[in-house]
Amino acid sequence: MDCEILVSGVPLTVKSVFAVIMHQSVTDRLSARAEAFVRTSGMRVNTPGRRTRTTVVLGRVLGILMLVCFSTGLYSHVLQNPPEWFPLSPQPAQLYRFTQGTHVLAGLALVPVLLGKLWSVFPRLFVWPPVTGVLSFLERLAVAVLVSTALLEVALGVMNIAQWYIFPFSFRRVHFALAWILIGSIALHVAIKLPAIVSFWRRPSVDSHTTTDAPASGDTSSHAEAVSRRGALIAVGTAAGLIVATTAGQTFAPLRSIAFLAPRRPYTGPQSLPVNRTAAEAGVLDSARSPSWRLTITGATKSIELSREDLLSMNQTTVELPIACVEGWSQQATWRGVRLKDLLELVDERNVDVRLESLQVRGAFATTTMQAAYVADPTTLAALFLGDEPLDIDHGYPLRVIAPGRPGVLQTKWLSRIEVIR
Ligand SMILES: Nc1nc2c(c(=O)[nH]1)N[C@H]1C(S)=C(S)[C@@H](COP(=O)(O)O)O[C@H]1N2
Ligand SMILES: [Mo]
């Protein structure tokens, strides 16, 4: 049938293309070289640690961590770019803190698991010839995309939380796009490997003879040099555990004293709260301290200006809300100020989306958007105080936004203008 001819014809084509590009004797020599390289570089193809079970176990852990990162990342993305249909909810107030803390911790735990998984399949990168048919071509393509995207995605994430912005593109857009490529290539990879995975887990007894550290018969590696499967998993697990334990303190305060890897630690910085961008970095030192500062509130029919004294004379509300940075650190704090919805009532507006503008002239977070659900929440404030003191200039003096359940990037500091969006 047509279909069969097509399916069996393509591998022939792939092979013949290879034969044209490389003369048969050249491929033979390359193949021998690759084998010699594998042997001399000390990579023991048959080392127990490299056998299938390690690969499958690491693959599962990797898959789970990647799904956790993907779903929490998607949530973070949606909060920052909400589609019309998405039911935004300010409560629970701690939800984003939890999802984003998890995103970053799972992403960091991914580093040793990813490296361990690569180590466990490394010799197969030297299998020759590299492509034997349509399925093997797809398989290799999926793996190549999967490996390169995973490494790049994790590297970008780590660079971002370390605030090492050497890339000339928008981190968020690239991180988001790569996430989709990654999840797609994982789906393809798992689909192709499914028969192997299923048959492997259906026959656990076959493998039980080789679960010890001793090399199986026919194994060319020496016992002493063999890295045990258990050892490999323990090494990866320990590395992941150490990374998580020494970073988790950035969001889970009881572990803060051992948060050696955390770029930001709770209870540090002015007023015992970390700062992401200082007033000096935002270029607002003078404008924020200026006595002529006013908050402008603009509705459809009315616009008003309020001084700090005007705001202080209004009804004050105290709330306990976290700053939950997209970079994974978070901290609960006590804020006092005027309810945002009370301010909008002054211009006869309720149930509206607003644009929040800061004194900052440049920068991605100089202006943000807040949807009606957050504006209406009784704990959403234009905050004047942090704890019992007026806001430190680095925390947004004279006025900042604090709302429940939102990414830190949207908690606009040095607020100067609230404008209703039509
Ligand atoms: N105008 C302005 N507001 C801003 C930022 C900024 O760069 N400019 N950074 C945001 C980020 S990324 C975070 S995590 C929080 C941190 O608030 P804090 O510095 O008071 O802890 O402020 C947010 N508000
Ligand atoms: Mo942030």
From TrEMBL:
Signal peptide: none
Transmembrane regions: 57-78, 98-120, 141-166, 178-201
Keywords (A to Z) from UniProt: Membrane, Transmembrane, Transmembrane helix
Domain Oxidoreductase molybdopterin-binding as annotated: residue spans: 290-421
Official protein name in the record: DMSO/TMAO reductase YedYZ molybdopterin-dependent catalytic subunit
Coiled coil stretches, renumbered: none
InterPro entries hit by this protein: Mopterin_OxRdtase_euk, OxRdtase_Mopterin-bd_dom, OxRdtase_Mopterin-bd_sf
GO molecular function terms noted in the UniProt entry: oxidoreductase activity
